[in-house]
Amino acid sequence: MKRFRTISLALVACLLATVLLAACGQEEEVAYETTQGGREVSLYFANSDQSEMVTETLELPEDIDNVLEYTLNKLLEGPTKTEHTRVIRAGTGLIDVNMTEGGLVTVNFTKEFYNNEPIMDVLASSTVVKTLSSFRDVTRVSILVEGQELVGPNQTPLGEIKEDDLVFSVGADDDDETTVKLYFSDNEAMYLGSELRRVSTQQKDSTEKIILQELIKGPQTKQLVRTIPAETKILSVETKDGVCFVNLSSDFITKHSGGSAAEIMTIYSIVNSLTELNYIERVQFLIEGKKQDVFIHMIFNEPFERDVSKISNAN
Fold it and tell me: 30-86, pLDDT tens digit by residue?
């Protein structure tokens, strides 16, 4: 009798193991079920000016253990198409991802996920939620950063996010505000990093002047540094036939810290910021209303064109 009981318990254990394995297998199947059918999911990125969301198709391999983890890591790698732009900050790592009953996916990222720019954090969250919503049974997403709930622009936790909760748009319903893209130098004066900034248009200044004013204020992101002396005054700014004429006070040069690398960052932080506007192709600098041959070291008397090689790949 004792032996029979032992065998029976062994059979029960085997049956329980089989049921558990079957349940796990079923959970894997749920995770693999996509809205597109087959084994393809959509990775969400931004277009070149980060004004619209774009997608790239990811083919899921047959032999991956965690399909959600694989998908998110591919999202973190960034787009494969040159005309697409990453929104999640470069260097962000995935700590873990879990899906619970009812379709809630909890994603835990490293601290690099935060951009120090509320707009970019919302856009980054949108790409995560949209991407995970490629799986049919994902109903909502909770985003954590180092185990703490992601907070929104008003510093309140975003909580569980549904696909349509976050609107991917740098535009605003408020006619008195607009979004500009600004470029500042990194700490080594090697590359430019970008910031998206909401600004008021109530003063009726041109967008070109607003961009210059914001550049003079300096960056809000800790990893970036100012490129224009704070004492610089904007004497005038005007765009004609695709050329933006920027007339600055002499402080722009006399109060500059100097150094060839810093000069390049200064020039192209302005040029690349202004040429984000689709009607500006080149920038001509004037100092106190006149062309100047050199800016400390650089040739300075001809219009400058946009130079994307100065922009960090992380932006």
Answer: 455 676 667 899 999 988 767 778 999 999 998 888 999 999 999 999 999 988 888
More confident residue, 26 or 291: 291
Question: Are the CB atoms for 284 and 261 separated by under 8 Å?
Answer: no
Residue 41, token pair as written in the block: 């999911």
- Residue 256 is predicted with a pLDDT of 93
Identify the sign of the CA torsion 256, 262, 265, 268. Answer: positive
Owning domain of residue 122: 40-161
Do 306 and 181 sit in the same domain of this protein? yes
Quickly list H helices, the chain. Answer: 2-32, 67-77, 118-132, 207-217, 251-254, 260-274
Residues 124 and 199 both lie in one domain: no
Q: Is residue 24 part of a domain?
A: no
